[in-house]
Amino acid sequence: xxxxxxxxxxxxxxxxxxxxxxxxxxxxxxxxxSLSRRGFAWVLGIVAVGLAAPIVPLLGTRxxxxxxxxxxxxxxxxxxxxxxxxxxxxxxxxxxxxPDLVAVERREPRGGIRRWQANPHWVRLALRDDGPxxxxxxxxxxGREIELGAFLSPEERESLHAELAxxxxxxRAADFR
Length: 177
Known about the structure:
InterPro entries: DUF2244_TM. By secondary structure, this protein is of the alpha+beta class. The chain has helices at about 35-50, 60-90, 155-175; strands spanning about 25-30, 90-100, 100-105, 115-120, 125-130, 135-140, 145.
């Protein structure tokens, strides 16, 4: 855990997600899921019909035996790709900001949890164009740099950057009152 005393002491910060005092910001991010469960069923149905249509005239011939495995493989690949997309949609990033602490908790699709925390006075927020994605958004502090909102659009990352910059300025000012 990070030292929040600022003096290099051994006081450990409390678990940021067990705090009772309300944060200045409590934001949860998740990827956009544009295909509903019903849409998923429709897509698979339409693809099944589309893949079966060229096979129907070939039924009862040797050619059907050559085409059917490839059609089934294409259908299975689509099914598993969409299922994987739904699983990846369980990813969340929770950002909380208090006057004395910034905490980020990332919940991975397969259940893993990664946490990062730092003092808002030492946190650096950056929105860069030279990252792996357009408008790469990072938080640095506590000896680490983390990426925020990799699954967001560039416009959403810009909006998140503006909101975080505003709240971090408030957190820094609130600590001196």
